[in-house]
Design goal:
Length: about 325
């Protein structure tokens, strides 16, 4: 039986031969296949959420929580096996190419939710309800026009690649300071400003930013695991406030810091000794998440954001 390592060595060679044949025959290879992202265990964010919805749309039900854990890896492996792909549990370009389907107005279901998550990631304010209606159609056309695609409202491979892809091998959008979107930067400034207004030391801003990157990639999203919402994926059922309060970036930031009047839940300032904790320990003390070690990966980015955005005005 071949190992995952052997498959990883053999598949690029096969791919190279196929591309050579394509060139020899004068056939134009699709430009999108090379720039889909590669996701694996430990990946987080909107691309993972879309992957999970796409898996569900193909019959491999997966919780759309934006966290590439063992369940997602197992679903990817099963899908790959059924699709005749190398079953290594890593969602790369070939896997995404097999998962995506062409969508248009009138389409419904988890694949549409995967699309809507991507549109929200790129700045659209639509709901992720799985219904490709007029609002989603308008958002798709606007995105296509802004990215040099035919603005026909039909979401085929080229549009999927532009939504999910890494732009020819560069940084994944929104995970380095220079790649943060305007929405991400504005939310980061709000988190810093609320911290300033509440007298939270700079280290607290770093913790809050790293937490929000893990939970929502600094996007004020209206979806998540069960009733989780917003920048910090706070839940109404756990006493973090109403949906409207949780979706308010200022109020949700105040709740995280522990200076909000709308929730009795303890926040960062209520955690004894938080300033001597690591970023991930302090974040987990507030969030009580299923993945207590996940926040550490965002500390470097959080510190970079603070270095660039420490001049954000206080928010009271």
């Amino acid at each position: 039986m071949s190992t995952s390592r052997e498959r990883r060595l053999v598949l690029p060679a096969i791919t190279g031969l196929l591309l050579a044949c394509v060139v020899a025959l004068g056939i134009q290879a699709p430009s999108y296949a090379a720039t889909y992202p590669t996701l694996s265990t430990g990946s987080t964010g909107a691309n993972v959420t879309s992957l999970q919805y796409l898996l569900t749309s193909r019959g491999y039900a997966t919780t759309a929580d934006g966290d590439y854990g063992s369940g997602t890896e197992a679903a990817v492996t099963s899908f790959q096996s059924g699709a005749g792909l190398g079953a290594d549990g890593v969602a790369g370009p070939a896997t995404f190419g097999a998962l995506v389907s062409t969508l248009r107005q009138g389409s419904t279901g988890p694949a549409v939710q995967a699309l809507q998550v991507q549109l929200v990631k790129h700045g659209s304010s639509i709901s992720t309800d799985g219904d490709f209606g007029p609002a989603t159609d308008s958002a798709v056309r606007s995105f296509q026009s802004a990215h040099g695609l035919s603005a026909d409202g039909v979401v085929g491979p080229a549009t999927w690649q532009e939504l999910l892809g890494t732009g020819g091998g560069g940084s994944t959008p929104g995970t380095t300071y220079d790649s943060l979107s305007d929405d991400q930067l504005q939310n980061a400034r709000t988190i810093i400003g609320v911290g300033k207004g509440a007298g939270v030391p700079e280290y607290g801003w770093v913790i809050a930013l790293a937490t929000s990157m893990q939970e929502s990639t600094l996007i004020n999203i209206d979806y998540g695991d069960r009733d989780s919402l917003g920048l910090f994926q706070q839940r109404t059922s756990q006493g973090w406030g109403t949906e409207a309060q949780i979706m308010d970036p200022v109020l949700s930031s105040k709740a995280f810091y522990g200076v909000a009047s709308h929730t009795p839940n303890p926040g960062l300032l209520d955690i004894s000794g938080w300033q001597s904790m690591s970023v991930t320990q302090a974040a987990q003390a507030v969030q009580r998440s299923c993945c207590p070690d996940a926040y550490a990966k965002w500390e470097s980015l959080a510190r970079d954001i603070v270095a660039h955005e420490s001049g954000a005005p206080p928010v009271s």
